[in-house]
Amino acid sequence: MATPQENLLDWLRDAHAMEQQAEKMLKAQSERLEHYPVLKARIEQHIQETLDQQTLINECLTRLGGSSSTLKDLGGKLMAFGQAVGGSLMSDEVIKGAMAGYVFENMEVATYTVLIAAAQVAGDAQTQEACEKILPQEIAMAEWLLEHLPQLTQAFMERSADPDKEAKK
Q1: Residue 169: which of 95, 103, 86 has the closest Cα?
Q2: What is the pTM of this model?
Q3: 67: alpha, beta or left, given left = phi > 0 and alpha = psi -120 to 50?
Q4: Residue 87: what pLDDT?
Q5: How far is 99 from 117, CA to CA, in rounded Å?
Q6: Ramachandran quadrant class, 162 (left: phi over 0; alpha: psi -120 to 50; beta: rest)
Q7: What distance in Å separates the CA atoms of residue 132 and residue 107, rounded to the nearest whole number?
Q8: What is the predicted pLDDT for the residue at 145?
């Protein structure tokens, strides 16, 4: 059995690991993108948001007397590394990366929705406020990806059909 505060702290550790994974995934994706400048620019913007989110989560963890979980952080980074390596081997890397990004952003949306509710139950207005600041950024990124998937797909297919152009990244 765990108190609301214990659950909140554990889920904040999960969020910290998730943001570590997001940073690594986004940076790997951005570094490889060459032919999709609009996507690259949006990813670069979200990298900065992710770094700011990490700061907010760290502040919550510290204020609650906790710290991040090295094991969870390492697990997240290893998963991101695996995704980056796996994606780089695919001929449609940019499309698979955008799809994976959309799924990941929705997981982040769910995570911060849970954290807001948990912070309310735990009576932690500061954590609630931090997560309420993060949530719209994650929703915006997910919506942006969903909105741009059709034109990204079209651009990929046009590049892919041209023997003189690289399409994958």
Answers
A1: 95
A2: 0.86
A3: beta
A4: 47
A5: 28
A6: beta
A7: 15
A8: 98
